[in-house]
From TrEMBL, chain A:
Matches recorded under InterPro entries: 4Fe4S_Fe-S-bd (IPR017896), 4Fe4S_Fe_S_CS (IPR017900), FAD/NAD-bd_sf (IPR036188), HdrA-like (IPR039650), MvhD/FlpD (IPR003813)
UniProt domain 4Fe-4S ferredoxin-type: residue ranges: 546-575, 576-605
GO MF assignments: 4 iron, 4 sulfur cluster binding; metal ion binding; oxidoreductase activity
Name listed for the protein in its UniProt record: Hydrogenase iron-sulfur subunit
Cofactor(s) annotated in UniProt: FAD
Keywords from the UniProt entry: 4Fe-4S, FAD, Flavoprotein, Iron, Iron-sulfur, Metal-binding, Oxidoreductase
Family, similarity comment: Belongs to the HdrA family.
Gene3D superfamilies: 3.30.70.20, NAD(P)-binding Rossmann-like Domain
UniProtKB/TrEMBL annotation, chain B:
Entry-linked PANTHER family: COB--COM HETERODISULFIDE REDUCTASE IRON-SULFUR SUBUNIT A, FERREDOXIN:COB-COM HETERODISULFIDE REDUCTASE SUBUNIT A
Kinase in keyword set: no
Keywords: 4Fe-4S, Iron, Iron-sulfur, Metal-binding, Oxidoreductase
Keyword Metal-binding in record: yes
SUPFAM superfamilies for the chain: Nucleotide-binding domain
Protein name according to UniProt: CoB--CoM heterodisulfide reductase iron-sulfur subunit A family protein
Gene Ontology MF terms: 4 iron, 4 sulfur cluster binding; metal ion binding; oxidoreductase activity
InterPro entries: FAD/NAD-bd_sf, HdrA-like
Pfam families cross-referenced by the UniProt entry: FAD_oxidored
From TrEMBL, chain C:
Key word Iron present: yes
GO molecular function: 4 iron, 4 sulfur cluster binding; metal ion binding; oxidoreductase activity
A Pfam family hit: Fer4_8
The entry's keywords: 4Fe-4S, Iron, Iron-sulfur, Metal-binding, Oxidoreductase
InterPro entries in alphabetical order: 4Fe4S_Fe-S-bd, 4Fe4S_Fe_S_CS, HdrC_iron-sulfur_subunit, Helical_ferredxn
Source lineage: Bacteria, Pseudomonadati, Pseudomonadota, Gammaproteobacteria, Chromatiales
SUPFAM superfamilies with a match to the protein in the record: alpha-helical ferredoxin
Domain of life: Bacteria
Organism: Thiohalocapsa marina
Name under which the protein is recorded: 4Fe-4S dicluster domain-containing protein
Length: 765, 427, 208
């Protein structure tokens, strides 16, 4: 298998490289210092002819490892794509030419910069291997869907329709979940187009909930196996080879092997006993929106009767945002997003079936989109009264209820009498305990902290997935208990690879949205299973065949990798060595960065591929007045920002980068090993700039915790500097956004200014 | 000449905005062949023109960088830019699509060096900046544009500028003889992701968008706030370039209105809250922002963001649909109306008024190539009658980016169901 | 008329909105108001209204029957239609205002000395006498509405216009003595009578 390593270099002389740089010198450096077997040049390497030249060399076995000295790795990506070869790219165009002024006095330092990038690219490619899948992975097309509600049923059905077998696990003895009692649903469609003359004719009406029909289709589908009265008692493995124990109430357990998982555990209705001010629990005629569906179902199209005495309801009040959008203890701080249209629908029951007065007391009526606003008008047409008002209290006296509220439009405190009050209560995510709360117990340093962490877990809900993962039993939560990832661009990217959350356990939502969400989650699960079968990574390093390789004999079982992996990919074996699960891995390299003894690496990204770049620059001596500044830049944000700064500079924006900078893209700041920093300082770098992504609650790290982990790790770098008797200013960590086109080069230039102040690093090699 | 290899297991995605791009990538990463057709010369659509996303206040180009890389690296995706679908015929599982590609006059050789732009003199309104700035007749639509190739404006073809551009190009990338090309190819399913367009603000007569330079739309304000945009990120008055500290945001400008768009455009409340932070970030305590609204629709977890912005004392909220805007003698827009909570009439002078403009579906109202169910608002409904054609994102409803992506991911599965059934995998 | 008011109170008890829908011209639109306030801000005379249109709609929904029907506000509408063209729900607000005013009048709830109402009554009475409006009489009545002294003052103020009109034959002093009628005055009066009967019948059927 291991064919002879053939290192070949290709330097483009186009885009001004040939005119401004000494290409011959770079060729010599590539072959002599960079140890490449050969180094060719081409006037337009990215053109068909140049690319063919490289392809031919690879095909002829002349090049297994390719160093390209041309433009940024982000440019001409399609042209320079050689899946069978290892490749590194020296960024001569954006990284050097465009960011440096074309003047005679700058020529020398600019050339040095280019020379170093050639050295670095040669070093990088020497230590790279073409990744190949480990063979650990399998293709298993069967999916597991956890949750028998509308979300879960939809996910199962849609996956089955695409040809994938599904195990659908429902906790109840029937399908339907929280939607079982629904009498009617909020209409899915907006008003039809083909109406002449008026815009408000034939507005959508409450419609059949379709839950039974969905369940019927599930039962009739031979690709779907339904497990009722069942829970997942253990989930182990990884995408492509998950193993789930499905235990039924009767005590039986079956184990199913699946490729990927959709968690569609929906929500739990809010417990309205937290709302004594609205007489919930005091008067049977105060019900929640969930309970009302049952009453409506019982009425079966006839007049809805109030629970206390069976009297037909003649007037009903809906209190919106009951126990929601509120920071009172026991209330939900968020808006549940479904209650406005739900109340309109329920008010319409009363208009239609009782001819009753129906009043909706709301603050903001939230009926977005086409169908939403149409349905609002539909409710108005049905003579539902909408009053902007904030209810303060419901009092039950002599068989009637008095709702006290502030009329926000008429600006007065007032009250209304009614037979029935419906509280528009919210959705509480039905999710398991937060894995990081579980991890906190273990990570606590003192007994006190441990106790505090344990107490936090005391009231945690039971686990949904019972993952046997090192980092806890369930999907990580973002806020308010929802298992969301807070990616705007990538809503399905949970932090447990191959397990996708769908519906209201991810974010509060109505039934239509939950069903749409289920379709997307099903696609992601299918995709994950298929990619696991190929041994390839999923988002964001899609198709990457590399995986963490680990030198067991060097491992000190410090557990940093198992704790820090943002995706919980690493378990521990019986001897407490890390157990990598390849298809759970997203190839961010956080484990590599975390490892103090440098035993973790990837075929195409390792301690060496970066470390050797650092070591292979030409280090001028202390008295040269040519400092060297190492910049490690996140490849997704900071590095593109530098590229775009170069673009701007090229078009005359006046941006420059110090010629003393040597920039290396990293997958994530989380992958940065402290050894790179100490090596760099020991080699003689005068300053180091680390540029990662925002890491607060609104983090922008695509590996979620990578940037935060790096920051924590690097917070200790000051000690190292002090031990070396170096100024702490020599290392700076920044959060850099992709839009920081001016700022990114400026931060590096600032470091150059700092070095001028504090002086050169005495450790020059 | 562009060639497309496709079969009836190929998925055609129409529209390369965030929804179409997502649908194409998700399908391709599941192993399906995809042809992605985009009308503009680059991918990314309207999100490329946004400065920040709500609620994280992060930058759209950040996610776009990943999506571009995913698309570029994936051999399953064929991207056609400057291309429009002119016809679709056939049925689910067996369509024939016809696409017209307009000439870019720049071929694959282009290295995006910018020499042609430097050589060309003619300038035109920059559509990327909604006409707030000018661009050259040879241009890269914006810095991160993918494909990263320049475009020649057809208006310079036949002028000396075209020859100058050609002469300036060192890599022979300019081909002035390029002609429009019509391509036909088979596909099994179609994802229609043509998105939305801002409602024509000039049609909201009382707000005077066409009369007062200091009344602008939310999409224009987004360009203004972008440090890489036409105003270098300075929040100013277009009339005189003076700082705009006192800013009004008017909700439902064209939305929820039987005179304009029937639907609620969903995003505008959140977008205005986001944009309020631009003003308060720029001018701190000196900022003075008023949001005029009917219902503040910070739905579901967006409530957190609403609370966050509500904590900024420089941002006020008035429950009112303003009646009209007039300009005073100094060109200041004066907003007239009644605060419905307590019925106070106001005539408030501002430096700048931003109309939170509605989202109009970019779906051909008449003459969709095949029969399709469109609702009263003009969005495509999910319906069995649509056969193998599935709307994704803004073509299906007024959606924010997160929901559009979610919806587009689902649309990818719908299309996969069809092409898998062509292969004989259907239940 | 007081009886009709009582009858209506009995009939609609708690639901004033329903009463408005059944009895007020275009009243069925009141429910469609989305409470944006654009009508109120658009009204050129809005600052003279106690309750601008949207507030009236909210008061109707809140069941503030007496306050609405005895309000002065809807009488302020000058039919400029600004509100109608701007209303996002396309409510015929101008018509609803007139409808409310008319309904209040029918129920005898118009505030005393409401000048618009008084003028409207004057106009109607004048019209009924001869089947056409006698402008001289109407003008004089209007001038002397607030007493003799006031009437003289107003008349003197408009003296010049009056003289001009006399000179050009636009106004005949003879009209002050009876004035001329439409061709078929009897026919006109019986037509009005019939219309009144029909209206009373409708109210009897729907109203009580």
């Amino acid at each position: 298998m291991a064919a002879e390593k053939k290192l070949a270099g290709y330097i483009c002389t186009g885009c001004g490289i040939g005119e401004r740089l000494n290409v011959e010198q770079m060729r010599t450096i590539a072959t002599r210092e960079g140890k490449l077997g050969a180094c060719k040049t081409h006037p337009m390497l990215c053109g068909a002819e140049g690319v063919q030249m490289i392809r031919d060399d690879i095909a002829a076995g002349e090049a297994t490892h390719v160093m390209i000295g041309a433009c940024s790795r982000r440019s001409k990506m399609e042209a320079f794509s050689f899946p069978d070869a290892a490749m590194s790219r020296a960024n001569l165009r954006e990284g050097v030419l465009w960011l440096r002024p074309d003047t005679e006095e700058q020529k020398e330092t600019t050339q040095e910069m280019a020379d170093d990038y050639i050295r670095m690219a040669c070093a990088e490619v020497r230590f790279m291997t073409v990744p190949s899948a480990s063979g650990e992975q399998e293709l298993n097309k069967t999916l597991l869907v956890v949750g028998g509600g509308v979300t879960g049923m939809t996910a199962a059905l849609e996956a089955a329709r695409a040809g994938y077998p599904v195990h659908l696990v429902a906790e109840e003895n029937h399908l339907g979940g929280v939607w079982t009692d629904l009498y009617k649903r909020v209409p899915f469609r907006a008003a039809a187009a083909d109406v002449v003359g008026s815009k408000d004719i034939d507005l959508p009406q409450p419609e059949d909930p379709g839950v039974d029909a969905l369940a019927e289709r599930i039962r009739a589908n031979e690709r779907i196996t339904v497990h009722l009265n069942a829970r997942i008692t253990r989930t182990s493995g990884a995408p492509g080879r998950f193993s789930a124990d499905i235990s039924t109430e009767s005590g039986g357990t079956v184990t199913e092997n699946v490729g990927a998982i959709v968690q569609a555990s929906d929500f739990k209705p809010y417990d309205a006993s937290n709302l004594p001010e609205f007489a919930y629990g005091k008067s049977p005629d105060v019900v929640t929106n969930f309970e009302l569906e049952r009453l409506a179902k019982d009425a079966n199209g006839g007049p809805i009767r109030r629970p206390s005495d069976g009297k037909e309801v003649t007037s009903v009040a809906f209190i919106q945002c009951a126990g929601q959008r509120s920071d009172k203890p026991g209330h939900l701080p968020y808006c549940s997003g479904f209650c406005c249209t739900e109340s309109i629908k329920q008010a319409m029951y009363f208009r239609e079936q009782n001819g009753a007065d129906a009043t909706v007391l709301f603050d903001d009526l939230r009926t977005p989109g086409a169908a939403g606003e149409d349905f609002y008008r539909s409710g108005q047409q049905a003579q539902v009264t909408f009053s902007k008002g904030k209810a303060s209290e419901v009092v039950s006296e002599n068989g009637t209820l008095k709702v006290h509220f502030k009329d926000l439009i008429l600006n007065e405190d007032t009250a209304m009498d009614c037979d029935l009050v419906v509280l528009a209560t919210g959705q509480v995510p039905n999710t398991g305990p937060d894995p990081y709360a579980q991890l906190a117990v273990e990570e606590a340093e003192t007994e006190e902290e441990k106790d505090a962490a344990r107490r936090k877990l005391e009231n945690a809900p039971p686990s949904i997935l019972n993952l046997d993962y090192r980092q806890g039993t369930d999907l990580p939560q973002l806020k308010h208990g929802f298992v969301d990832s807070h990616f705007i661009c990538f809503p399905y990217e949970t932090r447990r690879t191959g397990i996708y959350a769908a519906g209201p356990c991810r974010r509060p939502m109505d039934m239509k949205q939950a069903m749409e969400d289920a379709v997307g989650a099903a696609l992601k699960a299918i995709q994950s299973a298929e990619n696991a079968g190929r041994g390839a990574a999923v988002h964001p390093r899609v198709g990457d065949l590399s995986y963490p390789q680990f030198r067991k004999e060097g491992c000190t079982q410090c557990k940093r990798c198992t704790v820090e992996c943002p995706f919980g990919a690493i378990n521990e074996d019986e001897q407490r060595y890390p157990l990598f699960n390849e298809s759970r891995c997203r190839r961010c390299g956080t484990c590599m960065g975390a490892c103090p003894v440098r035993v973790i690496s990837f075929e195409n990204y390792s301690i060496d591929t970066v470390g050797q770049q650092i070591k292979n620059v030409d280090m001028p001596d202390e008295f040269s007045e040519k400092p060297r500044i190492l910049a490690l830049a996140c490849e997704n944000d900071a590095y593109p920002a530098l590229d775009m700064a170069a673009q701007a500079a090229q078009m005359g924006d006046g941006i420059e980068l110090t010629p003393f900078a040597r920039v290396i893209p990293v997958r994530c700041l989380g992958s940065v090993s402290l050894s790179w920093i100490t090596d760099a300082l020991n080699t003689g770098y005068d300053g180091i700039v680390l540029m990662g992504c925002r890491r607060d609650d609104d983090y922008q790290c695509h590996f979620v915790r990578g940037s935060a982990m790096a920051a924590e790790r690097l917070s200790k770098v000051g000690d190292t500097l002090q031990q070396m008797q170096l100024e702490t200013e020599r290392v700076a960590v920044y959060e850099v956004a992709i839009t920081d086109i001016q700022r990114a080069p400026q931060l590096i230039n600032d470091m150059a200014a700092t070095i001028e102040k504090v002086g050169m690093n005495p450790f020059k090699m | 000449m562009t060639e497309v290899v496709a079969t009836n297991e190929t998925i055609l995605v129409v529209g390369g905005g965030i929804s179409g791009l997502t649908a194409a990538i998700e399908a391709a990463e599941t192993g399906k062949q995809v042809v992605l057709v985009e009308k503009r010369p680059y991918l990314g659509g309207r999100v490329t023109q946004l400065y920040k996303y709500f609620p994280k206040l992060c930058f759209p180009t950040c996610g776009l960088e990943i999506n571009q890389r995913r698309a570029r690296q994936n051999p399953n995706i064929t991207v056609l830019t400057l291309a429009e679908v002119t016809d679709i015929s056939g049925d689910k599982g067996n369509y024939k699509a016809t696409v017209r590609i307009s000439p870019r006059y720049v071929n694959d050789n282009c290295t995006a060096c910018g020499d042609c732009a430097k050589a060309v003199e003619a300038e035109f309104d920059d559509e990327y900046n909604y006409g707030l700035s000018r661009r050259k007749g040879a241009y890269l639509p914006y810095r991160m544009a993918q494909p990263s190739r320049y475009v020649l404006d057809p208006r310079i073809i036949g002028t000396p500028d075209a020859d100058k551009a050609k002469a300036a190009c060192k890599v022979d990338a300019i081909d002035l003889d390029m002609q429009p090309q019509d391509l036909s190819f088979p596909c099994g399913a179609v994802i229609w992701a043509t998105g939305w367009q801002p409602y024509d603000a000039a049609r909201i007569q009382p707000y005077g968008y066409d009369r007062f330079p200091n009344v602008i739309t939310s999409v224009e304000f987004e360009r203004m706030a972008d440090p890489n945009g036409p105003y270098a990120g300075r929040i100013v008055r277009p009339s005189d370039g003076r700082e705009a500290k006192k800013v009004a945001f008017i909700q439902c400008a064209g939305s929820r209105d039987r005179n304009h768009l029937l639907h609620c455009s969903r995003i505008c409340c959140m977008a205005s809250l986001k944009q309020a932070t631009y003003v308060s970030d720029a001018y701190k305590d000196a900022a003075d922002v008023t949001v005029y609204y009917i219902d503040l629709r910070a739905i579901d977890r967006f409530e957190d963001f609403y609370n966050k912005v509500r904590a900024i004392p420089q941002v006020k909220y008035v429950k009112s649909k303003p009646a009209s805007i007039v300009a005073d003698k100094d060109g200041n827009p004066v907003v007239h109306g009644v605060d419905t909570e307590g019925y106070n009439r106001y005539a408030e002078r501002f430096d700048l008024v931003v109309l939170a403009i509605g989202m109009e579906p970019a779906v051909p109202k008449d003459g969709f190539p095949v029969p399709i169910v469109v609702n009263r608002e003009g969005f495509i409904e999910a319906a069995p009658e649509n056969g193998g054609i599935f709307a994704a994102g803004g073509a299906s409803d007024a959606l924010d980016v997160n929901r559009a992506v979610q919806h587009a991911t689902g649309a990818a599965l719908r299309a996969i169901q069809v092409v898998n059934s062509v292969r004989g995998m259907e239940v | 008329m007081g009886d009709l008011n009582q009858a209506m109170i009995e009939k609609y008890r708690t639901n004033f909105l329903k009463e408005v829908e059944a009895n007020v011209e275009e009243g069925e639109w009141v429910k469609m108001c989305m409470q944006c306030g654009v009508c109120s801000g658009s009204c050129p005379l809005g600052k003279f209204w106690d309750h601008p249109p949207q507030e009236l709609f909210m008061m109707i929904r809140a069941g503030k029957r007496d306050e609405v029907l005895s309000s002065d506000s809807m009488w302020m509408c000058t039919s400029c239609y600004n509100c109608v063209v701007r209303c996002p729900r396309e409510l015929p607000i101008t018509h609803i205002m007139h409808g409310l005013a008319h309904y209040a009048k029918r129920l005898g709830l118009v505030p005393e000395s409401q000048p618009t109402a008084a003028f409207a009554q004057m106009f109607w009475d004048n019209l009924m006498q001869k089947g056409r409006v006698n402008e001289l009489k109407l003008g004089l009545k209007l001038y002397f509405m607030n007493g003799f002294g006031d009437g003289i003052k107003v008349a003197l103020k408009h003296q010049k216009i009056g003289m001009g009109m006399l000179k050009t034959g636009r106004m005949s002093p003879m009209e002050a003595f009876g004035g001329h009628a439409v061709k078929d005055l009897k026919g006109f009066q019986s037509m009005i009578k019939k219309a009144q009967e029909l209206e009373d019948q409708r109210i009897a059927e729907h109203g009580a």
